[in-house]
Amino acid sequence: MVIQTIRFAIKNAFRKKLIVSLSVAGMAIGIALMVALSSASAGFDKILGEAVAETVGDVEVQQYGTELVLSQLPMNISDIIRTIESHDKIIAIEGQVVVNNFYQFADNVTLNLGIAPGIGPGGESLSSLALGALGVRIEEDEQFEGPTTKIIDGQLYENDYEIIIADYILEGGSEVFALNETLDLMINYTYSIPITIVGVFETGEEMTKILEPSFLMSVNTSLLINSLTLPFEQTGFNKAKIRFDSESIEETNTYVKELEELEPKLDVTSTGSQIEGLSSIIDNFSTVQTILTIIMVVAGGMAIFVAQLMGVSERMKEFAIMKATGWKNKTILFNVVFESIIIGLLGSAVGFAIGAGLIFGAQIGADTMFISITWQIILKTLAYGLGLGIASGLIPGIRAARVKPMEVIRGI
Amino acid sequence: MVDYIFNQEITVENEHDNYIIRTYNLTKIYNQGLASEVKALNNVSFGIKKGSTISIAGPSGSGKSTLLNILGCMDSATSGKAFIENIEITNKSEHDLADIRKFKIGFIFQEFLLIPTLSALDNVLLPLIPDGVKKEDRERAVDILKQVGLEERANHKPKQLSGGEKQRVAIARALIHNPAIIFADEPTGNLDTKNGEEILALLNNLNEKLGVTIVIVSHNPLVWEKTELLLKLQDGQIVQN
Predict the structure, then answer these.
(1) For A165, which of A5, A63, A219, B132 is 20 to 30 Å away at the CA?
(2) Contact between A195 and A186 (Cβ < 8 Å)
(3) If you compute the radius of gyration of chain B from its CA atoms, what whole number of angstroms results?
(4) Closest residue of A to B115, CA-based?
(5) In whole angstroms, what is the distance from residue A3 CA to residue B130 CA?
(6) Are A8 and B129 within 8 A, CB to CB?
(7) A325 and B101 in contact by Cβ < 8 A?
């Protein structure tokens, strides 16, 4: 019996094709916006979530109260760090020397990541975010399963002035970088030293690969290069990376507190916390998105409401005859509300298709899908269609159900 | 000759099994207690036997529409009682009245009132939609359309039908539940004389063949002639029969 009523409602829902089309379009615009914004929000949430999960136990330390370039941690920083009470939770420690000179190659890197060019420390333009160069000990990097464990071409550095480079630097065919080629690393714009590329390491497909260093070399090489460019003698690491066996950022923060009590005093940063901090930006974005969506979708719902109200007013005699032939109030109400639900769901479906089409279209050519459609978005789309269908059909439905047959039929 | 009783003979306690319609001191007052108070029906009592055909006539404001509304289970009375097949309809809820309309009563209106999106057949089936249309219902609807001479037009939409054909569809719709009574409100009002006569002939034919009681509200003397009894109302009272 419900099927018959539904079929009847479907027939009636599409009687005024132009009005219904406009209602569906109004609803669809709102839903398309919601789908696009929600998908972007969900995509960034996913990326952040994965990044937090990967780095939940990661902590970075540098000399207290100094800039990174000036920071000098003793060469035995690993031993000092292992004196904390929770030392058994430490999985790995890696001292790192930051080498700035490699920014000079920024213009030579062809990155296909869709990231806008930036400006490097020396004023040079950058086609990537980082182009970081680090000096690390191979045995320490292996504990992190870092780049030295992911050589896909060539070999690890063994001698001074040998480096390994990230695979994405070679994407698109670089004219400067090639395996076993020698780079001329300019020092203070006055002379150059030869650097040999001995290996290429894999970085994977994730967007976060750009946060990884692009050039890796031995600690000795990095200190040698820095000694040529810095106005002081660098004898230690700029920073150290520590990985704890941690389940949560809160747990990691307890280890952060222990590290802050060490001597020499350290500036300690939890990587997971930093990334999680970005989620507040996403939250703000979500709030704006929710407000925008509600405004748009309610506007769409109003279109259905007005269309239904007009439709019901025009069909009062039909409701009168339905009532005269024994239709009950609730059946008439259900019928009108169901007509609205059909329009609402159709608007949702069209809006979803437009929204999904737009976001997938926007990602054509990108390596990584940074926008994702989750089942929550699909449910939300359905809920908006259903909810607005019911809400916008209720008042017209009640009007239709309360019709007094004889008064309407006789035009009293 | 039609069998009926009037004011002086009818009592609410009486058993009147043969009387399909009975009213006892039926009164309807609009805007009661206000300056604009109108007594549309004033202590109307009468009974009509099963299988009769009657006309109700009267000037505008005489109470015929009010009487049709109450007997058609679409309005309530201020006082008094009304019965359809010995079921008191003046004390029933809106829900129960809908059921009585569905199973006991068929309506025909001057404007036909067909649903434009539905075929003639589906219009006939309209009263059945809330309960679900079964195969046998469809067969019955086709059979009724045959009885009203529209078998060939079953799949036509209302806009493809003439006025007379539309009214035939409306009659078929009124018959789908096998009603005991058909209330027809100016059924020939929108038809030319020829079509009007054909519709009246069809109603009389249905009355004879199916035994359905037919109550017609009409200003048309031709209609009065075709029915067994004419009730004339004036100022809410029966003044002539």
Answers:
(1) A63
(2) no
(3) 18
(4) A318
(5) 9
(6) yes
(7) yes
The ipTM is 0.82
Q: Which CATH number fits domain B4-240: 3.30.70.120, 3.40.50.620, 3.40.50.12780, 3.40.50.300?
A: 3.40.50.300
Q: How far is CA A27 from CA A348, A351, A374, in A?
A: 7, 7, 20
Residue A258: per-residue pLDDT:
94
Task: Decide if A262 contacts A84 (C-beta within 8 A).
Answer: yes
Are residues B130 and A329, on separate chains, in Cβ contact within 8 Å?
no
Residues of chain A neighbouring B72 (CB-CB closer than 8 A): 324, 406
Which DSSP symbol is given to A372? Answer: -
The whole-angstrom separation of Cα A71 and Cα A79 is 18
Domain boundaries, chain B: 4-240
Q: What is the mean pLDDT of residues A331-349?
A: 92
User: How far apart, in Å, are the Cα atoms of A256 and each of A83, A240, A266, A347, B77?
Assistant: 13, 13, 10, 51, 84
Enumerate the H helices of A56-137 as residue ranges. Answer: 77-81
Strands of B85-220, DSSP E: 87-88, 105-109, 181-185, 213-217
What mean pLDDT is predicted for residues A393-398? Answer: 94
Compute the distance between CA of residue A42 and CA of residue A48 in angstroms, rounded to an integer. Answer: 10
pLDDT tens readout for residues A27-72:
898 888 888 888 887 877 787 777 777 788 999 999 999 988 889 9
Residue A309, exposed/middle/buried by CB under 10 A (0-12, 13-18, 19+)?
middle
Interchain CB contacts (distance < 8 Å): A and B: 78
Cα–Cα distance between B108 and B214 in angstroms, integer? 10
- Return the number of other C-beta atoms located less than 10 Å from residue A121's C-beta: 9
- In contact, B238 and B44? CB cutoff 8 Å: yes
- A10 and chain B in contact, CB less than 8 A: no
Of B45, B94, B86, which is closest to residue A323 (Cα–Cα)?
A: B94
pLDDT tens by residue, B87-117: 899 988 888 898 899 889 998 888 888 998 8
Give pLDDT tens digits for A279-315.
777 777 778 878 887 888 788 888 889 888 988 998 9
Count other C-beta atoms under 10 Å from residue B77's C-beta.
23
**What is the CB neighbour count within 10 angstroms for residue A81?**
21
Chain A residue with minimum CA distance to B179:
A325
